Amino acid sequence: MLLLGLSAAPFAAAQTPATGATITFRKVFKTSYPEFVEIQVSESGSATYDIRQLTDDPSPQTSQIATPIVQTIFELAGRLHNFEGIDLEMHRRIANLGQKTFRYQRGAETHSVTFNYTLDPSAAQLLNLFESLARQQTDLADLQRTMRYDRLGVNDVLRQVEKDYNQKLLLQPEQFLPWLDQLAADNHFIDIARERARTLAGRIRTGR
Q1: Phi, psi of 150 (to 5 degrees)
Q2: What fold is seen in the domain 3-118?
Q3: DSSP character for 120?
Q4: Does residue 200 contact residue 181 with C-beta atoms inside 8 Å?
Q5: Where are the alpha helices (DSSP H) in 95-176?
Q6: Is the distance from CB of 84 to CB of 106 less than 8 angstroms?
Q7: What is the pTM of this model?
Q8: pLDDT tens, position by position, 137-166
């Protein structure tokens, strides 16, 4: 799949609710990992994630985002006039950091803005928030995958999850608890991974 063709493709209108607003973040960055990220968030907190390489088939996953995070997303979009008639690009010569698009939709009303790099503080905060959501979803998917298909690889994924948790990149770490608890109780996994999962689950529950 060519980058140009994908980046120019329309957003998936079929996923947009008939009422209420949605905000969609899309990032296309060929040769990175992942190369394609699209996260759509509704005012109700329901969300879809499509995170993959460009050559992979679309496989959106659904999730629920906590109310405070949703409120922050829509508040930041509001500061940016819901992306209507704004220019976020820095307009200086800079390396390609991936084509990023914010899109607002409420019924027939749609506004979007695309940029490589921005100095706008509200846009940068919104970008960081979506990047964190993508990081969290990638970590969770990696943990689920290795638990099912690669038990020896679980400890490496847990190290990454722990690192992201320490750096406060996981906005809803409680989503990991069912999987961490399952891993900690399953003697089919190596002891170091079970202990790491047990410790991390305890930290998440106590917020430390």
Answers
A1: -150, 70
A2: Mago nashi protein (3.30.1560)
A3: -
A4: no
A5: 121-149, 154-166
A6: no
A7: 0.86
A8: 999 999 999 999 999 999 999 999 999 999
